[in-house]
Amino acid sequence: MAEVSFFVARRHPRVGRIGSLLLTAYAPDEAGAPDVLVNSRHRDFKSYPDGLYLRLRVPIYCWDSGAVVELRNAVLCRRGYPSKNTRLYGPSRFALVIPERTFQLFKILEEAKLSGTMQNSESGIDPATVARKYSVAKLTFTERFLRETGYLNRVSARYGAILRQRLADGKGRMPRKLAEEALIEACNREVPCFVAELIVRKYRLKPTEMSSLIVLPELEGWQRLDAVS
């Protein structure tokens, strides 16, 4: 995966980017401006003050796995680095340990597998996995309203049943869209209209942003799950 990511990134640089390494360091004023070296080469980074310390945001790429990172004119603070992704050699020096599952190419392949055609059960789409990824628990206010009115379990059960049906014949549509439609249908079928109207009036909600007890703008959170997965 690392080698393929490296060669694909030559044509499509975004594939090589993993994210940012977040560090907290102490940089005395008399030491000069801090610098970050990756395998002895300068790496551009962003920094911002945090009291007596500095927060550093260092971009990392798939080919940085195993690379040695060194801070110049700064030392790492205690717990100021991700211990799972680093092997510490000293107060200002460590090696990067990057699992291949974090590579952008791996994520793209996983998304392609999840969003591919779903004509039958052999498609490899697991409804339970999709339901966990796009769960009611990730919609803060929607879950609160359903729990407050006593309809959370009924809507969740109906949502799971409808989602399984839709995934079985998804016609190549994205699981997220199928999940959104399934949840909206489940909530409208299970929650009486007068209950939803009471909640809208009680919390002075905008009716245009509600579908039964579902807060529609919260579904954007599911969209962000696709962006980071």
Care to describe what's here?
With 229 residues, this protein is of the alpha+beta class. The chain has two domains: 2-102, no CATH class; 118-228, no CATH class. The chain has nine helices and eleven strands. The protein has helices spanning 2-11, 13-16, 104-115, 127-133, 140-149, 152-168, 175-190, 193-202, 220-228; strands at residues 17-26, 35-38, 41-42, 46-50, 53-61, 68-72, 75-76, 86-90, 93-96, 210-211, 214-215. Strands 3-2-6-9-8 form a five-stranded antiparallel sheet, with no helix packed on it. Strands 4-5-1-7 form a four-stranded antiparallel sheet. Helix 6 crosses helix 7. Mean pLDDT is 83; it is low at 117-123.
What topology does this entry show?
Elements: H1 2-11, H2 13-16, E1 17-26, E2 35-38, E3 41-42, E4 46-50, E5 53-61, E6 68-72, E7 75-76, E8 86-90, E9 93-96, H3 104-115, H4 127-133, H5 140-149, H6 152-168, H7 175-190, H8 193-202, E10 210-211, E11 214-215, H9 220-228
Antiparallel strand pairs: 1-5, 1-7, 2-3, 2-6, 4-5, 6-9, 8-9, 10-11
Helix pairs in contact: 6-7
Structure, briefly:
The protein is an alpha+beta fold. It contains nine helices and eleven strands.
Mean residue pLDDT = 83
Computed structural class:
alpha+beta
Largest sheet: 5 strands, antiparallel
Domain module count: 2
| Number of contiguous helices | 9
Q: Assembly type of the shown chains?
A: single chain
- Give the spatial strand order of the biggest sheet: 3-2-6-9-8
Strand residue percentage: 15-25%
Q: SSE order in H/E notation?
A: HHEEEEEEEEEHHHHHHEEH
- The termini sit apart by 17 Å
Give the overall shape, derived from the CA principal axes: elongated
Q: Which percent bin holds the helix content?
A: 40-55%
Low-confidence parts, pLDDT < 50 over ≥5 residues? 117-123
Rg, rounded, reads: 23 Å
Based on DSSP secondary structure assignment, what is the total number of beta strands?
A: 11
